[in-house]
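Q: What would this chain look like folded?
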Amino acid sequence: MSSPRQSLRMTAGALAAALVMTACGVSGAAGAQSDGTKGMSTSGTGSLAPFTQQKVQWTACGTDVTSEAVPGAECGWVTVPVDYAAPGGETVKLRVSRVPAKDHSRRLGSLLFNPGGPGAGGAADVANGNWQAGKEARARYDLVGFDPRGTAGSGQIKCPDGVPQEPENPPRTEAGAKKAFADAARRGEACRGASGAVLAHMDSVSVARDLEVLRAVLGDAKLNYAGVSYGTYIGQQYMKLFPGKVGRMVLDGVVNPAADMQQVARRDLKTSDDAMRRYARDLVARGDERLGATADEVLRRVTAFAERLERKPLRGADGEEFTDATFSMYLETSVTDKESWKPLTEALAATLHGDGTAFDRMEAGAAGESGGEQLTPREEQTEENESMSMPAVLCLDSPSAPKSPKEMLRTADAFAKQSPLFGRHYAWQMIDCATWPVAPTGAAEPVKASGTAPVLLVSYTDDAQTPLENAQAVHRQLGNSSLLVRKGEGHAAYASESPSTCTDRAVDRYLVGGRLPGKATNCPR
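A: My prediction, written as structure tokens:
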């Protein structure tokens, strides 16, 4: 996601390790049974009781969810209204999965999980054990995954012509911009025609209301929740809507709801520029002067070359033009990954000498090193659906995309002034929301959520997708939060593929016993 969005974009910068304040007690965590109807609200008429009082028919998970379910995994469906202002209208079925608590005699309730995206489903992650929480939390909670409305198994949206996309060569003229907008608008309208009513209700507020239905259906008095990346945004929307129903909530890899789309894109521009500078410094420090004798010289040469490509593109391996936009995209995806720096240098050295095929060879080499693995049909479908779901959510949640060809051109010029290498590319990534057929309903504003139980924010010091500054900002916005910082690089620090005993124990202590980390509690690299 990759687009300049809070959950997806790569960021740079070794951000200084910080921590964390606020070690308040936790009240009202998981446990007692409830019918879940009290406190549920809707802005329209009609009863939500048919939804909150439904029973899940749990069965063994089928291959439509995962072909490798862990022992005890169960799957089912929960029905929710498409439009909470009219709960008597159309409905959508949410695919849910559950792995029962290992220590059932001391079960605390359900712990719902969302992996972010937006557009990623969580039912498979729980059913196949891809996400298992920490050891102590796994013992005491039923782990519950769900596919948010319109994604994965939950009433997928459809875009027969694909979602609106950034043009291969960002236009510089109003005529070119109008053509790009017309194509994007056509694609968006095709999404609306094929997807039906749910497309207008993919916003995170609606997903947060779905969480409240899930809480009630599962029989928990409070919502216990672990959200990753964009899942933290959904969690914050739930806090705003249902502050009295918040139990133990872990927000890991935090999205800042007060930052709008253009603010995020500008932050990501700095991220990529900082990564480029780190790469240049590392290159020179290793004694490799093929691109320049100093980091500044490397940056000047690369930037000047991109400007020459704008005037006179090279020819790529397939005979198509290798433009400054192509160059920018290759740099963006390579420079934030240190493992790509060596092949990046080889490709840059050749390209700066006029070889328009070097980056194609680098890409082919990377595919070869990975074994050339092909996606399964299910994986291809999941990836395609996520790419469709992403704008469907983001374009409703954020109102700040440029709204006309002229405004997009002005925005692209301003972004290019900030970052000659990446700016125009980042600006035009917003064309999906600039032309989306459904008007935004969200707002960029902090979530105060007064009256909630204390929540735990978690972040790496150097998170390329949701930087530490996001978690710090949300920590300031929420008077009832604690921030746990794990030193190092990564995204989603709790129960990760690279486990941290310190982090997992601290989060589990909160989830199981309600104890938040104390002051100045960092987890080491």
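The chain has a mean pLDDT of 89.
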